[in-house]
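Annex B, item 7. Sequence and structure tokens for protein A, then protein B.
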Amino acid sequence: MPKRDARVDAYIAKSQEFARPILNHLRKMVHEACPEAEETLKWSFPNFLHKGILCSMAAFKNHCSFGFWKRTLVLDKKTSAGKGMGQFGRITSISDLPPEKVLIGYIKEAVRLNEEGIKVPKTKRRRQKVLAIPDSLKEALKKNKKASASFEEFSYTHKKEYVDWINEAKREETRDQRLATAIKWLAEGKSRHWKYVNC
């Protein structure tokens, strides 16, 4: 019996109407290809596990995504270069996915890779750029320990999203409003684009 997670049921139920059949189809394909697969929520969206992460799916406001953890080993280069989070582009209907037989083949390949302990070859890490944080944000973070702790734990990309958002404001009033909102969200541990995680 597949190990289903009630949180995945809830995730699908609260997704947009167009997304529900897509997510249910993907879920069915994973369990058909790997009956032992376990479900969980990671990064606020459904993931499927079998001796490690196999794949994940997510629903947004106007599309869904589906992708493999070891995408470069599961898919060819052309397919694995999908835009966004998944490798199959913006999925708006089941017809945007590969045929069932092909999709099950991909999932079985992901299972094989995990069962054999095959890892994705590491790529050389590029030297991280130093992020120029505006003085106003530095000062505001000093005054709020929770916000400061969240900001420090965030990746370079998440930090940059906040910095760019504040810097892009053309008027001082807008900049001040964004700064106040940023500190509030950071104190709650939220990334800049937290609203879109489960859209």
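Protein B:
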Amino acid sequence: MMLGPDLVRMAGGNFVTVGQTAVPIQWRRNRKARRYILRFKQACLIATIPRGGSQREAFDFIQRSQPWIERQLAKKSEPPPTEIWFRGQKFPVAQFGTPHVARYLRAVAITELIPRVRQLAAQTNSQITRVSIRNQRTRWGSCSTRRVINLNWRLIQTPPHVVDYIILHELMHLRQMNHSQRFWREVESVCPTWRDAELWLKRHGREIMAFFD
């Protein structure tokens, strides 16, 4: 039976035990973080403590995150996937010929997405100051008040029409910094197929986001 996480201190560091599995915890402090954050990396639980936070409160947060921890452990026990999305199609992972698939995809994203943003910005008369390719875990893109367009590198895994939709979506936020009806009319005027793109993301986006989690 799966038990709740018990936090135990052992020689050499802290561990969280779930059932019979002991997972080491690596602590990180981030003055810019607004909340406690957990993620797995190389069989280790990375716990980020925000400014003003404490390790004790982080322990409490880990306790409350039991379902998420159990799901992550279940993922680790599954065989690694053999296929990966790239430009809207699935390819064998081995075809990329490198163990650093994420690094390769991010490099492709930088090479292809930045010029595409500038091209679509010119076509829509959108003034931007910079394009940034980021490792966002919940967003495909964002737009700042400084007219900076941020894109998730995982976007390179989606079809071209989805890429264009996300870019145009963010460019239209330069006109409307909201999701009002007026904003969606702006999107419709430059991307009539935006609903198809949203549907594709609804069907496959979660899988893509979780692949390199």
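Comment on protein B: Residues 1 and 19 are 7 Å apart (CA to CA).
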